[in-house]
Amino acid sequence: MDCNARSLLFILPLLLLLSRFPSAFPIIYPPNEVNLLDSKASQGELGWISYPSHGWEEISGVDEHYTPIRTFQVCNVMEYSQNNWLRTNWIARQSAQKVYVELKFTLRDCNSIPLVLGTCKETFNLLYQETDENQGGHFREHLFSKIDTIAADESFTQTDLGDRILKLNTEVREVGPLTKKGFYLAFQDVGACVALVSVRVYFKKCPNTVRNLASFPDTVPMDSQSLVEVKGSCVNHSKEEEPPRMYCSTEGEWLVPIGKCLCNPGYEERSNTCQMCRAGFYKSAVGNAECPKCPPHSFSHHEGSLHCGCEKNYFRAEDDPPSMACTRPPSPPRNVISSINETSVILDWSWPEDAGGRKDITFTVVCKRCRVVGADGSSNGGALRCEPCRNNVRFLPRAAGLQNTTVMVCDLLAHTNYTFEIEAQNGVSVMAPKMRQYAAVTITTNQAAPSPVTVIRKERTSRNSVSLSWQEPERPNGIILDYEIKYYEKEEQETSYTILRARGCNVTLNGLKSNTAYLLQIRARTAAGYGASSPSFQFETSPDSAFSISSENSQVVLIAISSAVAIILLTVLLYVLIGRICCRSKSKHPDEKRLHFGNGHLRLPGIRTYVDPHTYEDPSQAVHEFAKELDASCIAIDKVVGAGEFGEVCSGRLRLPSKKEICVAIKTLKGGYTDKQRRDFLAEASIMGQFDHPNIIRLEGVVTRSKPVMIVTEYMENGSLDSFLRKNDAQFTGIQLVGMLRGIASGMKYLSDMGYVHRDLAARNILVNSNLVCKVSDFGLSRVLEDDPEAAYTTRGGKIPIRWTAPEAIAYRKFTSASDAWSYGIVLWEVMSYGERPYWEMSNQDVIKAVDEGYRLPPPMDCPATLYQLMLDCWQKERNNRPKFEQIVSILDKLIRNPGSLKITANTTSRPANLLLERSSSEVPMGDWMDGMRTLPCKEAFSGVSYSSCDTLAKTSTEDLKKVGVTIVGPPKKIVSSLKSVDTKNDPVPV
Ligand code: ACK
């Protein structure tokens, strides 16, 4: 067979082959394979050596893309002893230790070739030779080593149509380990019909890669089975967390990644790289998390931000994480409520409306003591000057860092104005001093009793006396008026005791039994009353001398005789005294008024009994008994402030020798007075001089030995209460008004305890000083009423201030402390209506009738229900049902302690509310308005079956109200007509 015949025999199927395997093109080799030789890549002659020359034949062809390719074929199947060699060019090994040879070929099935003589083969051999250099055309068969015999997996197959389909065989063989710089491959044909379509020689590597943000370079595996350990290096903007490593397998695969790198702050991982955070995002720490968005109230304008800056007026505390929103100081606390209890106050407040976005809120309370100071430094008018409170003011639990919304402030000064600034703070407050706000509350402390005397010393002891001294209480809470010293024999255990009073801090106890143990307690008294008693202090008197002990019996006899004489004398004396209706006891020493108690029962109340100056035959004696005679030269009159019944009332100054000058009011007796007028004028001083109480006007003294005759009292800067209230309409807080009322009630309690009935208690007879302290004034007897312009003559003679007076006092002159309580109710009404005239323009006649029929004044505008209830109680027809002044004081104290209770008001009408309360619904028809009133929140406050307590008042129902016959009627016209119709039905009231 000639050469052409051979070609025909073989090429046609080859072209067919190429067109039948389009999927083989274009060829993309795996990334871990590095070609050392690819016959397809060469489009020109390959230049391989073929030996003998009629053996392997190089043929050009095209692939399916018509790209020319070079192939080799041999098909000397008709001839014997074939040994045809085809040798590649020298192939540089590069770094490979092991190479792969991929052969693509076709091989004809000998059976498919007609006329073969049994020489036909179906395999060929693959061989190689290693050399360090290219040996050119030099070729020696025996230097080649056999790699393998290559047989076809597939061969020609006959189809039904008679076409021949050529199957392409692919065989891969490993060669290695290679040690020399290069090598040759050789294909030995021994009589097959084979076409070598392509030869590719490659080695495997682990291609460079990035894993866990570490980059690993191209790595050629070892020839052996062992893995190559490769260290990675962190990509840009990242840092090693744990050294990155990986293993490269012989198959060119990366295995077992260990360790990793993390993106630096400001960078995030994107596609195996660390990229800058975008604007509006940030990353503050190393890590592969995404850059988070800037938290609320913060921003980042640039890429790669580590933190987001805070918006204006927003801050980040030092410990705040960057992921936290920016925050701001909280708004001030709200609804600050103060509850004052003597010299302590509990402050309560609500959580601030805006916590500033934080949860770490605490509260700080700053205490300031504030005074209105005039330009001259006096306390008259001017600016409010505040100074920090003294250090000994205690805060419970503490002043700063409070986590609850309440604090108790103790040990304040009594009767003093304080301002408390309460600030809510959070973690960023310190960063924004200008944004910090506080809520302030101003309070005035109440009177408070002094703290107990704690230090008592024994100065001298004798058989019958002991001298003691003590230290002023730590917290006097006011000016100490005197000390009460109570002592008794230790053995008698308080069944009988003696009480002494001393102005100073020392006392000598006389008349003690010798050689006897005594127990003693001291308590201080201020305007606010007595403080707690000191702990019991024990002392012993000295023993009798030897002589007196031996003559004990005779001494007993002596004592018995002298006691009998003394008792007789005392009886005579008492008889004389009772005969003169004089029931006062005089102490020998002005500073020490001694009261005796026996068998534990008080013979005289702790407060002296009032002595009616008219029981003195000579009233001027009474004046000098109770009032100090002043030298007129000590008094400087400044100006006239008003007119009294007997003469002008002036303001002035009193300077007593070795005492500080004080402001005083001076009542003068105008010239040309009668003896009776003089007596009546001075009677007031005789009465006033017996009183010593912070809510009773204090008498400084009288001038009787020169003219004009004067009564000098303490000066009350704000004059009388009624005009003061009218001048300051609606200017005071509920607590201030209740404070004034408490003062009046306390003064009245003192008077009633002393057995004094005032008879003319009205706002015009109360004086007010610059501290809003109210004091009862205008004392007298019948004169009181004579001199009162409000007093009207009754049918029984005498003048009575009808609108202020209890019905029984009007009707049959039954003046008692209970009738004073009625008047107190009217004063209460006057105060709460800021000086309104009780019963407005109604005539006295009408007032008497209306009151008698059960009508009562309506609540003043905005009057707290509890206070209105107190008024109604004071206006109980049955006088025994009216509250005692002691109870009134305690009710008002409770209100002061619970200012919240003042918020429930008794009505919503505007002043003047010309409405009266009706006693019985059956007597006077009720209007529709009544129904409306019933729904008022205060309705339950209108009780008053009998006097109970402040707490129970608010619980009384309208049914209870009806039981006592109190209902409400209105409007004004209806009342007038109702009153008129009642008028015509009833007998005239004796006025
Ligand atoms: O309202 P007033 O200014 O206060 O007018 C009357 C006036 O004298 C006639 O009583 C005033 N007055 C009375 N006693 C005193 C006092 N102790 N201090 C100041 N003013 C007084 C009262």
UniProtKB/TrEMBL annotation:
Domain of life assignment: Eukaryota
Q: What is its EC number?
A: 2.7.10.1
Point out the signal peptide segment: 1-24
Residues bound to ATP: 641-649, 667
List S-S links within the chain.
75-193, 110-120
Q: Which GO terms describe its cellular component?
A: dendrite; plasma membrane
The protein's UniProt keywords, in alphabetical order, are:
ATP-binding, Cell membrane, Disulfide bond, Glycoprotein, Kinase, Membrane, Nucleotide-binding, Phosphoprotein, Receptor, Repeat, Signal, Transferase, Transmembrane, Transmembrane helix, Tyrosine-protein kinase
Keyword flag Transferase: yes
Q: Where is the Protein kinase domain?
A: 635-896
Q: Which GO terms describe its biological process?
A: axon guidance
Tell me, what is one Gene Ontology molecular-function annotation carried by this entry?
transmembrane-ephrin receptor activity
Domain SAM spans what residues?
926-985
Q: Which positions, given as ranges, span the membrane?
A: 556-578
Q: Where is the active site?
A: 760 (proton acceptor)
InterPro entries cross-referenced by the UniProt entry = Eph_TM (IPR027936), Ephrin_rcpt_lig-bd_dom (IPR001090), Ephrin_rcpt_TKs (IPR050449), FN3_dom (IPR003961), FN3_sf (IPR036116), Galactose-bd-like_sf (IPR008979), Ig-like_fold (IPR013783), Kinase-like_dom_sf (IPR011009)
Q: Where is the Eph LBD domain?
A: 33-211
The chemistry this enzyme catalyses reads: L-tyrosyl-[protein] + ATP = O-phospho-L-tyrosyl-[protein] + ADP + H(+)
Q: Where would you find this protein in the cell?
A: Cell membrane
Q: Where is the Fibronectin type-III domain?
A: 329-448, 449-544
Presence of keyword Membrane: yes
Query: Which topology term describes how it sits in the membrane?
Result: Single-pass type I membrane protein
User: What is the protein name given in its UniProt record?
Assistant: receptor protein-tyrosine kinase
Quote the gene name from the UniProt entry: epha3
